[in-house]
Amino acid sequence: MQDDDNVYRDTVVRLCELAGDTATLQGLGFINCEIRGPAVLVGHESIFDNNTWRGNPDAVLWEVPWDRQNIIGAIQAVRCSFEECTFIGVGYAGRPEAIQQIKEQSRWP
Fold this sequence. Notes:
By secondary structure, the protein is an alpha/beta fold. The chain has one domain. The protein is 17% helix and 46% strand. The longest helix is centred in the C-terminal third of the chain and has 9 residues. It is globular, with a radius of gyration of 13 Å.
């Protein structure tokens, strides 16, 4: 169920369909959603709080070197929030501190 144009709550979200041709999610909120891939997310000023990621953290989390300027083929999450969501078939690419934060604030069944 979608509360309004910017918040998805208690629903299944297919990232590639939502991101479309621009491969960008901007200013969206996701609360208690099942987030489905296949996809790799890159967060920009986004919040990931108390989520569950299906898979081994070493396979889900992709560390991006500091000197890399561009990432092609990933879905950009710009100023989005993901709270209490379950990610299935989704990886996350980011700088070391972002990877560490997701590891610490997530569940890994």
